[in-house]
Amino acid sequence: MSSVIGFVLLALLVFTAIRIARLRGLFSATIVAGIYSLLGACWMSFLDQPDVAFTEASVGAGISTVLILVTLSLTTSEEKQPEHAPLLPLVVVIVTGAILVYGTIDLPRLGDPEAPANLHVAPRYIEDSQHEIEVPNLVTAVLASYRGYDTLGETAVILTAGVGVMILLGGARRRRPGTPKTTRGAGP
Amino acid sequence: MKDQVVPRVVAKLLIPYMLLYALYVQWHGDYGPGGGFQAGVIFAAAVILYALIFDLGNAQRAIRPWVVNLLVPLGLLLYIGVGIVTILKGGVFLEYGVLEHDPVHGQHLGILLVELGVGTTVAGVMLTIFYGFGEVVRG
User: Fold this and answer.
1) For residues A92 and B83, what is the distance between their CA atoms, to the nearest angstrom?
2) Lower CB count within 10 Å: N or C terminus of chain A?
3) Phi, psi of A136 (to 5 degrees)
4) What stretches of B55-102 show up as alpha helix (H) in DSSP?
5) CATH for A1-82?
């Protein structure tokens, strides 16, 4: 039964991805991309990763859909016709995809306890976190305590991204009401 | 979207629960799925839904842009501050065990504060970006 659910979810993901690639209207493509993210969240919760599913649903299907829609209201909502033939991109995509699939042959099976990733520090986290930290959610224990430095870095990355977007948007906001002659805001 | 009755009514019903759920995910991250990042995103999503349906100006009157801008560094400073406190208390950077007499309680307190810092920064950044885009669209 569970393999049927997994197969249906993956088939829907592939189907949605092909739809996104074929859509010319960027508005509908954004909505379908939101559906893709939601299916991705379903897939993650199917793999017993509720934390990742949570993030995918809120960020992928929620925030980024809204942000892309707002961006579309600033630009156009119709994709331009490509100037060159689609043959070269198709070849590049097929070759890259083939290399990636070739790479997965060496990967350990999903959930393999003998996989290198599960032999390094994971057993220690699983065995010791319940009396070292006593936090039932192991993901939180690893993220906030054992890997506290990494999470600090990630938070700094989010802050930097926000500041970067604000600098770009601030430049756009200052240029718009000003006369085209002034170049203030475009400089460093 | 001001003239649309159904989205207005549904949003009015949903937004308080979304904010409450964000707080639940924030404080309950030790026990269930989620944590600071997800909580910050859900909180920002509730405000963004309000802004989409009841106009950006009203949302900015509810949560001022300067407050949102302040949240961005505040969260990261809280995170780093926890690390500095652990150094001052004789541990190494982000060693939460020294925060309280019982190392396990210290871990709990440290994780709670650090997750609050992450949530604050994430909510701040998401809202800052949305407010920024919204102001550019409005011109």
Assistant:
1) 47
2) C
3) -60, -35
4) 56-62, 65-88
5) 1.20.120.1200
Sorted by where each begins, the domain ranges of chain A are 1-82
CB B30 within 8 A of CB B108: yes
CA B12 to centroid of chain Cα atoms = 20
**DSSP string spanning A124-158?**
HHHHHHHHHT--S-HHHIIIIIITHHHHHHHHHHH
Closest CA to B34 of B127, B125, B128, B111: B111
With CB atoms and an 8 Å threshold, state whether B130 touches A141: no
Residue A77 sits at the chain B interface (C-beta within 8 Å) = no
Over residues A23-82, the pLDDT tens digits come to 888 999 999 999 999 999 999 999 888 889 989 998 888 889 988 988 888 888 788 877
Name the phi and psi angles at B113, rounded to 5: -70, -40
Q: What is the pLDDT of residues B72-103, one digit of tens each?
A: 999 999 999 999 999 999 889 988 988 888 88
Q: How far is CA A141 from CA B38, B57, B85, B96, B98, in A?
A: 16, 40, 20, 12, 16
Surface-to-core class of residue B127, CB atoms within 10 Å of its CB (0-12 exposed, 13-18 middle, 19+ buried): buried
CB contact under 8 A, B134 and A70: yes
Provide the greatest CA pair distance for chain A: 67
Q: What is the model's pLDDT at position A89?
A: 86
The pLDDT of residue A73 is 85
Q: Is residue A157 within 8 angstroms of chain B, CB to CB?
A: no
